[in-house]
Structure formats: C-alpha cells, structure tokens
C-alpha cells in the first residue's frame, strides 16, 4: 500500500484507482514534518514550501507538485535525501491561455487592437507562453516573444528584446520566477520598465507576482499615464498590496486562478499519479471516460470575433474579478485567509478547448474553421 499525503486543493483524487493507494489530504499551508510520518509520497501545490527541514526525517520516496511553477521546492534537498521529484509542466497551460483570452475579450479594446494588427508581446516561451503564441498566431494576431534563455540557445528564431516587448500594445507575462543571472525574472518589470509603458497599453501578469515589482507598480499606477493592468498574481500573496485595487488602471484582478480550470487541475493530478506508476509504486491505470464533449451555443460572428464570443460563453472572468475585489472589503486581518478560501472553494471552471460548436447549413467558412482550430473547438 502506497500512502500519499496530498494538498486538499488537488482535484480528482477520488477518481484515481484505489488499488494499492491510500490518500490523505491536508491544507497545503499546514503540511509539516510531523505529517509525513509513514508517508511514501507527498503531492503539493504552490503554497507548501518543500524544504530540507520538511523532508529530512521522512521516508518519502516521491514528491510531486501539481503545478508548473517549482520555486517552492528545494530540489537539491530532495536529491540529497534520495527522494524523486516531478512537477506538472504544461498541465495548466491551456487554462492560463484561456484566462488571458478571457481578459482581452472582457476588456474589448485590447482584443480589437490585436485584431487590428497591434502586437501582443509575450514574456517566456515555456508551456504557457508557447501555447499563447500559437493560439494568438492562429487567430491572426501579430506576436512577439521574449525569452533570453531560449534565445541564447537558438539564434535561428526571431526573438524579441525586452524593449520590443515593452513597445507592444498588450504584454503578457508567462516566465517562471527565479533570480538566476544573467536574466533573473524577479522584478523583471521594475520601475524602469514601467516607466516605458503608458495608458495606451495593457500589462497582464498570470505568471508570479514578483515578476513585477508591486511597489513600483503602485507608484506607476499613481502616475499621469499608467498602463492598464490585469493581475492574477501578487507579490507576497496571500498578503497582497490591497491599495493596488483602488487604482482605476487595474482593470481586472483575481486570486491566482488563471491556471484553475478543472481540466488543468485534473491533468496535474493524473501526471503525479502516472509518476507513481512509472516508479512501479502503483499499477492500475486510470480508467475514466473523458470522451463527453460539451456543446457551445451557436455564434453569430465568424473568424476572430467569434472567438471572443466563445471565450466569453465559456468563462466569465468578471466573476473572478468581483470575488477578488470583495476580499478588499474584509477587515485587513482577514484578507489573506479570504484569498486562500477563494482559491480552495473555486468553482468548477471548464475549458473551451475540447468543446463542440454546432453550426447550421453548408460548409464552415475558412475564417470560422481557422478560429475553431486556434481554440481547439470542434465544428459539428
Ligand atoms: O504554477 C502553477 O501551476 C500555477 O501557478 C498554479 O495555478 C498554482 O496553483 P496553486 O498551486 O497555488 O494551487
């Protein structure tokens, strides 16, 4: 019997085969060394710091994080204690991409600007940045990508500079958070970078809070021509600088839920279970019928504008904005707990990708086909 201790915010634990597997859950922030007694595998999310102190006296054989980001895990400590490690890169990529599209659709003006040919600047070409670049390109948008680490390895690609990105109409951040030279992403968007932006632009952060210097951002948002912002992540969360919420240029705000579609969380759970199978700690394959396809309501528009309609049909980002802003009405001492509760009790948000769009009569037009392909929607 393999005993797993898992963060209670993981989804689908009850869908995993129960043969040879015993799963206990705890709130991620409270997991301590004492909880690891007689535990073989630990499955965390981003809020559990996995340190030498946590694991040194355990009998853990595997630690998995059901997240793309790994900055909360001391991988050297795991290796030193002979504990295998895996993350869930890519599990939430489509969820984050749909968050970005939903933000642009909700705000309308940036969407129209991109449709009209202005550039989308993407920082980071990992799973999320790459997928966003691909979807945006398929929608016919002009995309620029900045990733100095990959640029150093592959000079063939037409990489943008940070300055090119800061000149784009819309800037979307999707790099991991780290302090490694020569291109640390910590405070990549600092006072100097913010000074290059103005109120004709939009800045989206669905990466990690500290990629933007939040103090410098607050100052910038108090200036004469501040950039329009969409923030899903916050420096120091669940403690956030709540004064940012009073800034009119903060157009949309949410509680680190960009990657919180149901599919994203389920993908991550599956990935960690599959690691146990690879290690031959469990045997039974996951047997779930995932072939049910949701039907969308027909759309009026064709091409790129239909994409906007479909995104909004499937995901109302305004709801997340409202829930987050309600936190600011709580007494200051209760907001951090409110932030965690909001994430813990997050609704079942289902992705647009993998759905079916019914359309009536004849062949679908090429723009409609292109749009459907971009979003991963089947035409029926
Ligand atoms: O790194 C990730 O995968 C995402 O930021 C993810 O949404 C974090 O969610 P959490 O682990 O905090 O529940």
Ligands, deduplicated: 4-phospho-D-erythronate
Residue share in helices?
Answer: 25-40%
Under the CATH scheme, the architecture of the largest domain is: 3-Layer(aba) Sandwich
**Radius of gyration, taken over Cα atoms and rounded to an integer in Å:** 21 Å
Taking strands numbered 1, 2, ... along the chain, how are they ordered across the largest sheet?
Answer: 7-6-8-9-10-11
How is the biggest beta sheet arranged?
6 strands, parallel
Describe the global form. globular
- How many discrete structural domains? 3
User: Helix tally?
Assistant: 14
Question: CATH superfamily of the largest domain, please?
Answer: NAD(P)-binding Rossmann-like Domain
Q: How would you describe this protein?
A:
By secondary structure, the protein is an alpha/beta fold. It has helices spanning 52-55, 75-80, 93-107, 109-115, 127-138, 148-153, 162-166, 191-195, 214-221, 262-278, 303-314, 317-327, 335-344, 366-375; strands at residues 2-7, 21-26, 41-44, 62-65, 84-86, 119-123, 142-146, 170-173, 202-205, 228-231, 250-253, 356-357, 378-379. The strands form 3 sheets. The protein has a 6-stranded parallel β-sheet. The chain has a 5-stranded parallel β-sheet with strand order 2-1-3-4-5. Strands 12-13 form a two-stranded parallel ribbon. Bound molecules: 4-phospho-D-erythronate. The site of 4-phospho-D-erythronate has 11 residues, from loops.
List keywords for this structure.
Rossmann fold; NAD; Ribosomal Protein S8, Chain: A, domain 1; globular; five-stranded parallel sheet; 14% strand; 14 helices; 380 residues; 34% helix; alpha/beta; binds 4-phospho-D-erythronate
